[in-house]
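Question thread 4412

I'm putting together a teaching handout and wanted feedback from people who do this every day. The idea is simple: show students a protein as raw sequence, then show them the structure tokens that encode its fold, then repeat with a second protein so they can compare. Below is the first pair exactly as I plan to print it.
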Amino acid sequence: MFQNINFTTPSIIFGMDTLNQVGKQAKKLGASRVLLLTGPNVQKAGYVEKVAALLKAESIEVEVNIQGRNTPEPATHIPEAVAEVAKNMKADVIIGMGGGSVLDVAKMASALLTNPLKVRDYFGREKVPNRGIPTIMIPTTSGTGAEVTKHAIFLDEETQVKKAVASSALLPNVAIIDPLLTVSCPQVVTANAGIDALIHAVEPFVSKNANPVTDCIALKAISLMTKWLGPAFADGDDLDARYNMALGSVMAGLVLNNSGTSIVHALAYPIGGEYHVPHGPSLTCIILPCFDYIMLARQEKFALMAEAMGERIEGLTTREAAELSLIALEDLLKKLNLPTTLTHLNITDRSRVDQWAIDAHAEQRLLSRAVRKLSVDDIKIIYNNSF
């Protein structure tokens, strides 16, 4: 079979102390006034002052916008408010520095400067017609991969469901990934962000949209992160672990951007929106029954996944090797203190399953990539198996 492959990526600058390049990169984009979007923890770590100094050294004016919120995903009004700030200061470049949510807000705020509607009007695939002003993304976690993707996730305040804007117009111009910025991550953030990154590699790997390029990158990302996530979690000062997790995370982001997630993310959105569960745990509490339900369609790939995770598959049947991937994944989740069931999150109300299934089934942008066609009743089974 001959497959057409499109592979898109921002300009990527990766390595220790690469944060020092932010001023020159902003200057290349024509920056004279920059809106620097970040969060309070990043500010406390001293990174904001450093970036501001690097920008000012290039004669670039800087306004800092500190983001705070009370839900794991930013609500739709937040990027709209940031866009107003950028418009009023006449920003010509937006820099997002922080976790995935801060980067998503930065991407969307940029797009809103050149597109007239509200965030809700752009939910879905390729609905943003015009690119925004240039953006630079600097992740401080490993991570969501948001620095290299065209996606931005927000809480739809009307439905209390997480939804995505997925448009090429949101793709950042430059991603600067400096593993040293992740050393300050608390243990729980290391686990939540790290497992999110791992899922961004494994889920597209077993999706319909996988291709030979993303498969190679995904397997390497899986290998890196299953080896180094544990050490990064155990000792945040382990620079080898931080370096390799940052590398695995950005590779997973490239896989996500070019092959996309599917069943796990589709089923996680209703739960995360309703219960305001952080993104990583909203995925881990359902991933095992999700993968068990689709494994019959991609046993060979699940077997390769097990091998990439460091499991010995010699002498095993394809089915045995495939099932080993779920055993290894469950073991990793437990060692990271992450939930493997809904009950672990104190979610026990099964009366909500019917509505979750309807909401998840509506996420056809994601479910269209699933290797098994799923009805609403199929999704109900998966949710019930998640308790």
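The second pair follows. I'd like the answer to focus on this one:
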Amino acid sequence: MIAFNWHRVDRRNNNTPVISDAEIDKLAAMLLRDYKPQLLKEPGKIKYDHFLESYLGVNLDYKHIYYEEDAGRILGVTAFSRGLLPIFDRENLCLDEIVLEKDTIVLDLYVTAEGREGLELFTGLHEGGHFWMHQQVYAKDERQLSLLGDAAALEPVICCRKDDVESFGRKGGIRTPEQWREHQADYFAAALAMPNATFVPLVQATLAANGIAEGRIVENAGWDEIVLATEVLPEILSEVYGVSKAAAYVKLRKTGLVVDGQTVKKESRQRLVF
């Protein structure tokens, strides 16, 4: 595994990496080149569980993760150090607590239900993003923890709720350090699942096959464009990459392969200015 070694961090906010989406794309491509180069040559589904366990060295598990009713469902957790995780024991119909060993990722069994394969893939890679990029933020000094005894060594795990994992399409603006880390994990998941090296050519070839040679589509230019941008393309990409149609559509917008009329007008005004 290639270690994450980033030169820009926000030391005022727990060493949160200061990293752009484009830089995450490059890092994800670097990992795929080292893990399975074929994923950068031909569009296909990444096996998230194999990537987490065999490449990142994660201990992967699945549980019914307990969450407060008004706090939002927890889809995944990452334990950078030895930690405690509340779970719901469905066999005995009671709450329980388990100890997670260091370098463990747990996915809630909710994401493994039939029909949620895209969510399962994205959640697994999202947690992998935290594990790979955010060690400096969350990992504790094991030597220091051992001096405090076993009880003190049980650290809280990092919980990602449904809103966190599904924040990929959320617009930018002012974010807290925690929100930035969630965004980074989301973008990392999308960059691994749908690498630009195959994603862009596939989309442009599909557009060309539908009579659009410009390399991108203005989705609100007409009814045909709306259907192609919001239904046809996401359906194709979901099938090819194993992601949800919603995640595929967001990726289309973020890569600029699907734009709206306002974006085109803004670009035209900028060209006139320069």
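Top answer:
Good format. For the second protein you could add a caption like this: Residues 141-153 have pLDDT under 50 and may be disordered. The longest strand covers residues 83-89.
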